[in-house]
Amino acid sequence: MNTPRSRSVALSLTAVLSAAALAGCGNDPDPVASDPASTSEPSSTPESTDATTEPTDPAETTEPTQPATTTAAPVYFVGDTPMGPRLYREFRQVEADNPYAEAVALMVAGDVVDPDYDSAYPDGRFASIEVDAEEGVILVEAADDGWNTPAPGMTKAQAELAVQQLVYTVQGIAQDRLPVRVWLGDPTNAVPLFGIDTADGLTAADPLDVLALVNVTSPEEGTTVSDKFVANGLASSFEATVPWEIRQGDTVVLKGFSTAEGWMDKLYPWQSDVDVSGLAPGDYTFAAMTDDPSGGEGPGPFEDTKTITVE
């Protein structure tokens, strides 16, 4: 087993898994960072691809309705923050008939869209994953015993973050806070994950302890924008204030702020209309931040950045 990569924490891997269906990822699907039942839908969250064909003339032969081929899944990666490595979320399009397989494969492999993110996993893979509705647990099958103990050089904090990366991803897909059990050989044979016992079911840690306190959902990394666009995401920021900036190199060329739906106890949705009609065409960086009431005396604000192109 290889040593984890040096940035934040590390990994590369592929996963082969069996799955359950993902329902309604458009509403913030994270079951801990915000409550799906009370969260407004992000305006640019990816939606399922629907191949349905509607005929314009009833006399014409209608094509059979095709099921959605892909769906949006929340995948959690690791990124740097003023308080050490934490989890950031990307919505990724995955196969609708088996979202766990592809989403967890992306997670463990560190297959990111935003190059600021990475993964906490060393080389290896999971063999399968499924939701046992009767028992009320998400069952994750280990491929072998290589991840039973921490990888060489992996600290306890890194191991715990890797565990949370898995828990947040599969619970987000399930949209349920079901405990997660890792097994090998027999589903009743729970095994540790990087030395952390899973027999009683892994649960999501407090989001304020493991998630980056600001996360940009839209614009996505590499988005092209013109005139106006809507920026949104999740944050837990002082007095719900979420400042944002557009930078060109080290120069701030535009700034504003959003007011999130809440703060303090978890991450809440924020949204802001951004007018870039006065900017020259070119490449820029959109940055959303937490407010820093300490005036620089504390660790500093959390930040999530996305490269955008203004046309």
UniProtKB/TrEMBL annotation:
<feature type="region of interest" description="Disordered">
    <location>
        <begin position="290"/>
        <end position="311"/>
    </location>
</feature>
<feature type="region of interest" description="Disordered">
    <location>
        <begin position="23"/>
        <end position="77"/>
    </location>
</feature>
<protein>
    <submittedName>
        <fullName>Immunoglobulin-like domain of spore germination</fullName>
    </submittedName>
</protein>
<dbReference type="InterPro" id="IPR018911">
    <property type="entry name" value="Gmad2_Ig-like_dom"/>
</dbReference>
<feature type="compositionally biased region" description="Low complexity">
    <location>
        <begin position="33"/>
        <end position="74"/>
    </location>
</feature>
<keyword id="KW-0732">Signal</keyword>
<dbReference type="Pfam" id="PF10648">
    <property type="entry name" value="Gmad2"/>
</dbReference>
<feature type="signal peptide">
    <location>
        <begin position="1"/>
        <end position="23"/>
    </location>
</feature>
<feature type="domain" description="Bacterial spore germination immunoglobulin-like">
    <location>
        <begin position="214"/>
        <end position="297"/>
    </location>
</feature>
